[in-house]
Specification:
Number of strands: 15
CATH architecture of the largest domain: 3-Layer(aba) Sandwich
Structural class: alpha/beta
Order of helices and strands: EHHEEHHEHEHEHEHEHEEEHHEEHHHEE
Oligomer: single chain
CATH superfamily of the largest domain: Vaccinia Virus protein VP39
Number of domains: 2
Largest sheet: 9 strands, mixed
Number of helices: 14
Helix content: 25-40%
Radius of gyration: 27 Å
CATH class of the largest domain: Alpha Beta
Strand content: 15-25%
Distance between the termini: 61 Å
């Protein structure tokens, strides 16, 4: 059966509500309507410093797992640094949630959020930094105690209400009144469907449920597919392996699948050697093919004629360099001038000229803009130069066709003229 979800970039969303949500989740800093004061910046820096400490921690926790178990951990005794590496939400995800909550607060929405699954408490600290009233539930007492100590170290323990117990028992005791629920625990099909069914009556009008790891297992995939069929949730959005559920009056039924607006550099850093080797092999094969073609041409006496390639899509290429000077990030995007004589997609060429002239303030901002204009990263490598480490990006953009030209000939050169 065909999926109901429509895959889209945040710029292509027409619903004002979902457009605002998506751009605060995936848009760059210039596309969000929030301001970060010194207090908030300091809080984020402290949380991320704590994350680094946890990644180096030698502590152990005896975990009582009330959920669906773990694919990473086999026993009850678990290393804190391993929990921090495999269980915690990433900085980008936590920061995106923070931006959404701050934006919704500025819009006058209610500010009460429930987190189902505390873990080490870093995401909870991000939620508290938004200014919302935060309540968090955890099934393991030792894990909850460890999270409380983390909040005390951050100075935000007074903003967080923490409860220990099974989600089922705590839900039965709860009075509800939530504006957002982040379901980040017990990744089981039947349990997830049961919790969501119960939360229908505990959410405030227009409230939302965010379910983590909807693709974690076959059961979670089935649970999400069933929730998409539930007419109660007339608006949904999949985002980075998570699913948003909304019941909004007056909203046209829509089910969106939000694309990432940037290319993860970690993938390229992990594959750096592979990309370099692959590029070298490709270059070698291309050289051999060109040499063979030249050899065949020399055997014929026919006149050389220019032609236009019309079969299939082709690519035009560009380059981006990223390095630092005196602690300031420098981003340079460039495209060969000959592209203007080769490319047939004039809109892409005009956009490329504008991108090349724009002064980007960060690598993430540049990748965000490039990807939104159809440019993809082909290869990445790092070189050590006199100014320091320089990251090289080979960019590509698909066009309908290319017109072969000779760069050593001027446009005024007539056909058949010998150079």
């Amino acid at each position: 059966m065909k999926s109901k979800e429509k895959k889209t970039h945040w710029r292509g969303i027409h619903s004002p509500f979902f457009f605002d949500l998506a751009r605060h989740l995936e848009g760059g800093g210039r596309y969000v309507d929030i301001a970060f004061d010194k207090t908030l910046v300091k809080a984020i820096d402290q949380i991320e410093a704590l994350r680094q400490n946890l990644l180096r921690s030698s502590d152990y926790i005896e975990v009582h797992d009330c959920g669906a178990g773990s694919r990473v951990f086999k026993g009850k005794s678990r290393k804190v640094k391993k929990i921090a590496r495999h269980v915690l939400q990433s900085k980008r995800v936590a920061f995106a949630l923070l931006r959404v909550l701050i934006f919704w607060r500025s819009q006058g929405r209610r500010m009460k959020i429930l987190e189902m699954g505390t873990s080490l408490g870093l995401t909870t600290a991000y939620l508290a930094a938004s200014g919302w009233d935060v309540e968090t539930w955890e099934g393991c007492q030792q894990t909850s105690n460890y999270a409380r100590n983390n909040w005390k170290a951050l100075g935000c323990d007074g903003q967080i209400k923490s409860k220990v117990g099974t989600f089922k028992s705590l839900m039965e005791e709860s009075q509800g009144g939530w504006d957002v629920v982040f379901l980040d625990g017990h990744h089981d099909r039947d349990a997830t469907l049961a919790y969501v069914e119960c939360l229908k009556t505990q959410l405030n009008p227009g409230g939302a449920i965010l379910i983590d790891d909807i693709g974690w297992s076959k059961g979670m995939k089935e649970a999400w597919a069933q929730l998409l069929k539930d007419p109660h949730w007339n608006a949904t959005m999949t985002w980075r392996g998570k699913g948003w559920l909304f019941n909004r009056d007056g909203e046209i039924e829509q089910h969106l699948k939000l694309r990432k607006s940037y290319i993860s550099l970690s993938k390229f850093n992990n594959m750096k050697l592979f990309t370099i080797v692959f590029a070298a092999i490709t270059l070698l094969m291309s050289t051999q093919v060109q040499a063979q073609g030249t050899k065949e041409q020399m055997k014929t006496k026919s006149k050389a004629e220019s032609s236009t390639a019309t079969s299939g899509a082709s690519k035009i290429f560009g380059e981006m360099l990223v390095f630092e000077i005196n602690g300031k990030t420098v981003v340079k995007v460039s495209f060969d001038p000959i592209m203007g004589r080769m490319g047939s997609d004039k809109d892409a060429l005009v956009a490329s000229q504008q991108i090349a002239n724009f002064k980007f303030t960060s690598m993430g901002q540049a990748l965000n803009v490039l990807s939104s204009h159809g440019w993809m990263v082909e290869h990445v490598w790092t070189t050590l130069e006199r100014s320091g480490a320089v990251q090289h990006f080979i960019l590509s953009h698909e066009v309908a066709k290319l017109t072969p030209v000779s760069p050593w000939l001027s446009k005024s050169t007539t056909k058949g003229t010998k150079g």
